[in-house]
Amino acid sequence: MSRTLLHVFPTFGVGGAQMRFARLANHFGRLYRHRVVSLDGSTACAAPHEPGLEDEVLTPPRRRGTLASLPPIRRLLDALAPDLMVTSNWGAMAWVLANFDRRVPHLHLEDGFNPDEAGGQLARRVWTRRLALRRSTVVLPSRTLHAIARHVWKLPERRLLYLPNGIDVARFARPADPAFAAALGLGAGAPVIGTVAALRPEKNVRRLIDAFALVLRRRPARLAIVGDGSERPALEAQVRRLGLAEAVIFTGACATPERLLPAFAVFALSSDTEQMPLSLLEAMAAGRPVAATAVGDIAEMVAAENRAQVVAKTPEALADALLSLLADPAAAAAIGAANARRTAADFAQERMFTAYRRLFDGT
Q1: pTM above the 0.85 mark?
Q2: Listed residue (141, 162, 172) closest to 17, CA to CA
């Protein structure tokens, strides 16, 4: 009989943690029955699942203050009686607190921080995590997060597991698809700087647009912004205000980024906060050189040859990194090849699947 896993997400909209879940669910198939609670009601990430999987998205209890929410959560846990509860990030912490008596075995995944914690840890959340997670297994995809969990949250070392994200390397190590790229406006012409991101405040694509404006003062280029989200109207307005509309392409969300990535001369990431972004791994697997802000584990993720382009969180520094890669296409191609080798060696998804199988089985 399949084990039942209850996954609690602050949102089940499209994001790195949600896409990782989809890959795990698709890989394991009917080995597990997945029940998902989306606390904000979003179900956008249900789409990537293969048909026929035993999973469902549940309606959460009505939102109320943390203390008032604990009894209805406890009643729902009793009714569902999952074999394992898997919570995701700070937004699911009420479910961790409701399970304080360990009525359900618990696994907590911490992928990063909201914009309100981008500048530092909030004392109330530090203390809550310190108390609530002491008896749970806590999975962390970056060494930066692992260090925070151990030394700031002061969780026991035996409860922490550093488990990097993994991707399907072969899917992204594929030839260019010129017709697909051209259909989105990325055909022949000036080199393309591209990013793939949910357009949310913490991704700070505004910084990338400002950096791109500085690049255009020095050389021709185009900017492709692949993704969608709440920030898109403001970003489009920024592009118009800076007079960049002819050089910036908003493609919207793309379910097959592997068909677009080979069209990028450089992959750019401009976030305020990240830990181990899947989009970066995908770009590396596609052999792209990277210009990125120095957040989370990004400097450790990229090949050594690419670390000079992991820079401070300013438009000027990011523009300089972009220009250095655009100036020498042969050197940039060599950096991209090094990134591809690094991804194949250290971030292939098979290792991730094996580790999650043990976690989901409670072994």
Answers
A1: no
A2: 141
